[in-house]
Write a structure and sequence with these properties.
single chain; 755 residues; alpha/beta; 8-stranded parallel sheet; 5-stranded parallel sheet; globular; binds glutamine; binds zinc ion; metal-binding; Cobalamin-indep_Met_synthase; Met_Synth_C/arc
Length: 755
């Protein structure tokens, strides 16, 4: 009999209950007992959901108060020594201090979990880090699940992945120097789990999907030989891409089973199935854990049937990865129209799909006929729906040529014309786009959404805000102005709502980090722009000033990256459709007299595939999509782009190939070090390295910013250098914003005097 399980379930709750409980605790409105209660309730609910759906094992250990990597560190006792907490007596407050910082301690660093939008806390590796054991939360949760009569499968981040994802803070030459100690730590945990009679442990090693060098690869065999000495049976889970290169390695590991992602790594099965050991389980991830489309059950069954013949009872059925990355329950989407809704499956529905596939395999499709028919009808309807296919978009796409992705003249000639038109001073000052999103702005938007104020009232309030932002910028003496983006709730949602082909959920929250959740839109159909999206705002803002006003758009890669994307055509096709829609907007802005247009691409780098051999293909279409947006305008029109989190050194040729006239990047926290690569590469176009960190309320003085600018001048030619903050200012308050920008303008003036 095939067995059904999930690699993990969203912990945040269908109505973001964990977020609310955490934030109330952090505010001091509730105590630790109340918070623990909320956690227990959520775990109980999620286990019951899994069991009721027909999962044979429920996942225990995927719950975390803030992040599962941090929970693993708390379990091992491997919390950063600099906090001076006793790992065995770590309280919840201590745990949150690790995650969020305090007056005395800066927080642990946070970064993206592989190519997802989930952020984990980065382990800090120092020679004195301890692995002697920490808190007992996991063991308590196992007891909880058992008390509720569940068969528990414990989920752990594997030792090699944990080690790999950490950063050396001091005193170590290689992370693997810590391997013997971390293995000993895991051995202690596994021994305890064995003593408790735990039936299965899923141990996640997603680093196997990356390009692993031999040192890491060679570490697997001895590590797992040591771990399996005294442990419950281990299911080693890989996901997010194929792990073909490690087929022989995985076959020889002494684990009891392996999980493969058959959604991202659809073709890898053949490398494993042929001589899969007789005593070994193979768990296949057949339901997409990274997207929200309903599974084509017929197609899934066609794939599963021969695996079942080969493996019999040793086949396990699962989602491709943890369901952490999809919203909890489609049932709460009461406003979504029935047609779109019938095409989707969230975490709860995905459990049902896995259960149905299991029944079909174990008891025959006739036992789940209605479910198969419903899925078939939905999949067929989606394939043929006129809402998906738009003949006009297809025609435009077919006509696109390479010339459409080329500006008229080369940068050298363009910049001369642009300079003649604008006559900007040396080291021109600007900002990235957004100004403080005050509570008045948010309240007005909420009132408008509730229907308490009408459309025109709302527009009026936002226009007042634009007036204020323009006046402040003039007072501050900035050279290139922005309208401040008050009308935008979110840089992707705002555009998605105005484009055809985008859908939205009311409650489709996905955890991004800690209590923070995002509600990504989904792209279901051919994308096109029914009418101008930003032109009236930019035009209005420009009418208020003689200074140049930058138009402000979100680029195609970011529009794609921060949404759930169609699975019925390649990502690059969707990107190109978005690009063509944005190109029309760029041209309309130009026609309306907006001569500088910024196309933001903060998600450009995070779109990189996990394996570097796939990078060139991605970078080629991503650059082309950007250029498609940017190339419909005259040489005099200045195209800006902005990227944050800018570790770009390995992709600089492509950043240069985007050929934006001006790029602004985040560099201040690296003390301008991130700029060095641009210098070495001789990046040709204009560049604005951020001179102050917008993530912090601290206001640097003008000398500090001038010092950073001097460093930048060592790398970038004076004529190419712009002056701006690291990123948009929407999360900041007005007083600090004015103070910081005023210092920034003064720093630029100091520099001009040196010329
Ligand atoms: N223009 C956007 C802003 O200023 C850019 C945001 C971003 O880079 N993430 O908010
Ligand atoms: Zn940014």
């Amino acid at each position: 009999m095939a067995l059904a399980h999930t690699l993990g379930f969203p912990r945040i709750g269908a109505h973001r209950e964990l977020k609310l409980a955490l934030e109330s605790f952090w505010r001091g409105d509730s105590n630790e007992a109340a918070l623990r209660d909320s956690g227990r309730t959520l775990r109980a609910r999620h286990w019951a959901l899994q069991a009721d759906a027909g999962m044979d094992l429920v996942a225990v250990g995927d719950f975390a108060w803030y992040d599962h990597v941090l929970n693993t560190l708390a379990l091992l006792g491997a919390i950063p020594a600099r906090f001076k907490f006793d790992p065995k007596r770590l309280t919840l407050s201590d745990y949150f201090t690790l995650a969020r910082g305090s007056k005395e301690h800066f927080a642990m660093e946070m970064t993206k979990w592989f190519d997802t939008n989930y952020h984990y806390l980065v382990p800090e590796w120092t020679p004195n880090v301890c692995f002697d054991g920490g808190v007992d939360w996991l063991f308590d949760e196992i007891a909880e699940a058992r008390a509720q009569n569940h068969r528990a499968k414990v989920v752990l981040v594997g030792p090699l992945t944990l080690l790999y994802l950490g950063k050396i803070k001091s005193g170590l030459t290689h992370k693997l120097d810590l391997l013997p100690r971390i293995v000993a730590g895991y051995q202690n945990v596994l021994k305890r789990l064995q003593a408790m009679g735990v039936e299965w442990v899923q141990i996640d090693e997603p680093i196997l999907a990356l390009d692993l060098d031999t040192a890491w690869r060679d570490a697997f065999a001895p590590t797992y030989a040591a771990l399996t000495k005294a442990a419950p049976p281990l299911l080693l889970a890989t996901y997010f891409d194929e792990v073909r290169a490690h087929a022989a390695l995985l076959r020889d590991l002494p684990v009891a089973g392996v999980h493969l992602d058959l959604v991202r790594g659809a073709d890898q099965l053949g490398d494993f199935l042929g001589d899969w050991p007789q005593d070994r389980v193979l768990s296949v991830g057949i339901v997409d854990g990274r997207n929200i489309w309903r599974t084509d059950l017929d197609a899934a069954l066609v794939k599963l049937a021969p695996i079942q013949i080969a493996l019999g009872d040793r086949l396990w059925i699962a989602p491709s990865c943890s369901l952490l990355h999809v919203p909890v329950d489609l049932a709460h989407e009461t406003k979504l129209d029935a047609e779109l809704k019938s095409w989707l499956a969230f975490a709860t529905q995905k459990l049902d799909e896995i259960a149905v596939l299991k029944r079909a395999l174990n008891h025959g499709t006739e036992t789940v006929q209605p479910q198969f028919s419903a899925a078939r009808a939905a999949v067929t309807a989606r394939q043929h729906s006129p809402r998906i296919h738009n003949g006009l978009v297809q025609k435009r796409l077919a006509k696109v040529s390479d010339a459409d992705a080329q500006r008229g003249a080369a940068f050298g000639a363009r910049i001369v014309k642009q300079q003649a038109k604008w006559n900007l001073p040396p080291f021109p000052t600007t900002t990235i786009g957004s100004f403080p999103q005050t509570s008045e702005i948010r309240q007005a938007r909420a009132a408008y959404k509730r229907g308490d104020i009408g459309h025109l009232d709302y527009l009026d309030k936002m226009r007042d805000e634009v007036r204020l932002v323009v006046r402040k910028q003039e007072e501050l003496g900035l050279d290139v102005l922005v309208h401040g983006e008050p009308e935008r709730n979110d840089m992707v949602e705002y555009f998605g709502e105005q484009l055809w082909g985008y859908g939205f959920t009311a409650n489709g929250w996905v955890q991004s980090y800690g209590s923070r959740c995002v509600k990504p839109p989904f792209i279901y159909g051919d994308v096109c722009r029914p009418e101008a999206m930003t032109v009236s705002w930019s035009q209005f803002a420009q009418s208020l000033t003689e200074k140049p006003m930058k138009g402000m758009l979100t680029g195609p890669v970011t529009m794609l990256q921060w949404s759930f994307v169609r699975d019925d055509q390649p990502r690059e096709t969707t990107a190109l459709q978005i690009a063509l829609a944005l190109r029309e907007e760029v041209c309309d802005l130009e026609k309306a007299g907006i001569g500088m247009i910024q196309i933001d691409e903060p998600a450009f780098r995070e779109g990189l595939p996990l394996k570097s051999r796939h990078w060139p293909h991605y970078l080629d279409w991503a650059v082309r999509a950007f250029k498609m947006c940017a190339s419909g305008v005259a040489d005099e029109t200045q195209i800006h782009t902005h990227m944050c989190y800018s570790e770009f050194n390995d992709i600089l040729p492509w950043i240069a190939a985007m050929d934006a006239d001006v790029i602004t990047i985040e560099t201040s926290r690296s003390d301008m070090k991130l700029l060095d690569g641009f210098g070495q590469f001789a990046y040709p176009n204009d560049i604005g390295p951020g001179v102050y960190d917008i993530h912090s309320p601290r206001v640097p003085n003008r000398e500090e910013m001038a010092r950073l600018l001097k460093k930048a001048r060592g790398v970038i030619a004076d004529a190419r250098l712009w002056v701006n903050p690291d990123c948009g200012l929407k999360t900041r308050g007005w007083p600090e914003t004015c103070e910081a920008l005023s210092n920034m303008v003064l720093a630029a003036r100091m520099l001009r005097q040196e010329l």
